[in-house]
C-alpha cells in the first residue's frame, strides 16, 4: 500500500515528470533528429539511449530521492518506534519504489527508440536495460545518504549541481566527443571508479563483437563499492548506540 501511494505521489510531482521523464526523452529525440543517419550506427543507437536514460535516472535517484528521504526520514523513524513499520521495511519500500520509477524512465525512452526504429529488440539491449537499472540502485544509495545527512534547504540549493555532477560522472565523455585533452583524460580516470564507465565499455565491446565478461565484472565491482560507506555508517551507528547505553 505504501509503495503504491509513494509511486502515485511521485507521478503527481510536476518536477519529476518534467526533469526526469520529459527532458531526457526530448533530449533523446533531439539527438536522433540531429544525427539521423549516424544514429542508426550500432554503437550510436545504444549510446544516445544510454545517455538519455542516465540523465533521467540520475535526476530521479540522486535529487528527487534525496529530497524525499530528507522530508520523510524523521517521520518514519518515529513510526518505527510507535508501530510495527520498521526503518528496515521503510528503506526496502523506498528502494522498490525507486526501481519502479527508474524502470518507467528507461522504458519511456526505450519505447520512443523502438517506435522510431532506432533501437533493435535483442539480448544486448535487454542486458543494457538491466545494467542501467542496477546503476539506478547505485545512485539510489547515494541519494539515500544525501537525504540522511543533508537538510532540505541544502539539497534544494544543490539539486542542479548534484544532478549534473553525477550525470557527468556516469557518462563516459571520451565516447561522446573526439576531444582528447587533459581534462577528458582526468575525468576518464575518475570515472573508472563508477559503474557508468563500464556501461559504455559494454556498448563499445558490443560494437566490436568482443567478450563483455570483463566489462560486466568491473561494472558489478564498481557497484559493490557503494556498500563500503553503508558498512562504515552502520558501524558508527552501532558504536554510538553502545556508548549511549554505557552512559545510561
Describe this entry's structure for a reader:
The longest helix is centred in the N-terminal third of the chain and has 41 residues, at 42-82. This protein has helices at residues 2-11, 14-34, 42-82, 87-115, 123-149, 152-170, 182-191, 195-207, 213-224, 227-247. It is 82% helix and 0% strand. With 248 residues, the protein is mostly helical. The protein is built from 10 helices and no strands. The protein is globular.
Task: Offer a concise description of the structure.
The chain has 248 residues and is an all-alpha fold.
What are the segments in which pLDDT stays under 50 over at least 5 consecutive residues? none
Assign the structural class, choosing from mainly alpha, mainly beta, alpha/beta, alpha+beta, or little secondary structure: mainly alpha
Mean pLDDT: 82
The termini sit apart by 39 Å
Helix content: over 70%
Order of helices and strands: HHHHHHHHHH
> Using DSSP, what is the number of strands?
0
Radius of gyration: 20 Å
Sketch the major β-sheet: none
How big a fraction of the residues is strand? under 5%
Counted by DSSP, the helix tally is 10
Shape: globular
Amino acid at each position: 500500500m505504501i509503495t503504491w501511494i509513494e509511486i502515485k505521489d511521485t507521478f503527481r510531482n510536476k518536477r519529476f515528470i518534467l526533469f526526469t521523464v520529459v527532458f531526457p526523452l526530448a533530449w533523446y529525440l533531439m539527438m536522433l533528429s540531429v544525427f539521423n543517419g549516424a544514429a542508426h550506427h550500432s554503437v550510436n543507437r545504444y549510446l544516445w539511449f544510454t545517455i538519455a536514460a542516465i540523465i533521467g535516472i540520475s535526476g530521479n535517484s540522486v535529487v528527487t530521492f534525496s529530497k524525499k528521504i530528507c522530508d520523510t526520514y524523521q517521520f518514519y523513524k518515529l513510526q518505527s518506534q510507535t508501530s510495527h513499520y520498521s526503518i528496515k521495511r521503510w528503506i526496502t519500500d523506498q528502494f522498490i519504489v525507486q526501481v519502479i520509477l527508474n524502470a518507467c524512465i528507461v522504458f519511456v525512452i526505450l519505447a520512443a527508440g523502438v517506435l522510431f526504429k532506432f533501437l533493435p529488440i535483442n539480448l544486448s539491449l535487454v542486458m543494457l536495460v538491466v545494467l542501467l537499472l542496477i546503476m539506478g540502485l547505485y545512485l539510489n544509495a547515494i541519494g539515500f545518504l544525501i537525504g540522511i545527512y543533508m537538510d532540505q534547504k541544502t539539497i534544494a540549493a544543490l539539486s542542479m549541481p548534484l544532478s549534473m555532477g553525477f550525470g557527468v560522472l556516469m557518462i563516459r565523455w571520451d565516447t561522446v566527443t573526439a576531444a582528447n585533452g587533459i581534462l577528458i583524460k582526468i575525468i576518464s580516470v575518475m570515472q573508472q571508479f563508477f559503474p557508468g564507465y563500464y556501461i559504455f565499455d559494454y556498448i563499445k565491446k558490443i560494437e566490436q563483437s568482443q567478450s563483455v565478461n570483463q566489462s560486466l565484472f568491473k561494472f558489478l565491482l564498481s557497484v559493490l563499492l557503494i556498500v563500503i560507506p553503508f558498512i562504515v555508517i552502520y558501524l558508527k551507528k552501532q558504536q554510538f548506540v553502545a556508548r549511549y547505553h554505557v552512559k545510561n
